[in-house]
């Protein structure tokens, strides 16, 4: 079955439109990859912040437990029972 000139023209136009659409999709994917890289970089920075926060919390917890232990040890002396 032979393709006439009209059908060939329609197919040619469809192929051109598909090529344009593929170029748009490729640029969208590139932009999406850049955005993903930026998000991952922000997550990495945030992860460092969480580590610092956990370190500070550990130090504060250690100090608090030390003060509590000292207060409990000194409690009998503070209330006058030796």
Give an account of the 3D structure.
This protein has one helix spanning 5-79. The longest helix is centred in the middle third of the chain and has 75 residues, at 5-79. 0% of the residues are buried. The protein has a domain at 50-82. With 82 residues, it is mainly alpha-helical.
Features:
82 residues; mainly alpha
Q: Percent of residues in beta strands? A: under 5%
- Overall pLDDT confidence: 86
Unreliable parts = none
**How large is the radius of gyration?**
35 Å
Shape: rod-shaped
Distance between the termini: 111 Å
How many strands, what sense, and barrel or not for the largest sheet? none
* Number of E strands: 0
Encode the helix/strand succession as letters.
Answer: H
Fraction of residues in H or I helices: over 70%
Number of helices: 1
SS content category: mainly alpha
Summarize the structure.
The chain is mainly α and 82 residues long. Helix content is 91%, strand content 0%. It has one helix at residues 5-79.
Summarize the topology.
Elements: H1 5-79
């Amino acid at each position: 079955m032979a393709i006439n000139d009209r059908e060939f023209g329609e197919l040619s136009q469809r192929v051109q439109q598909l090529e344009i659409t593929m170029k748009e999709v490729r640029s969208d994917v590139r932009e999406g990859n850049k955005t993903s890289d930026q998000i991952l970089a922000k997550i990495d920075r945030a992860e460092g912040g969480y580590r610092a926060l956990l370190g500070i919390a550990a130090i504060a917890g250690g100090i608090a437990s030390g003060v509590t232990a000292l207060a409990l040890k000194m409690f009998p002396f503070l209330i006058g029972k030796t």
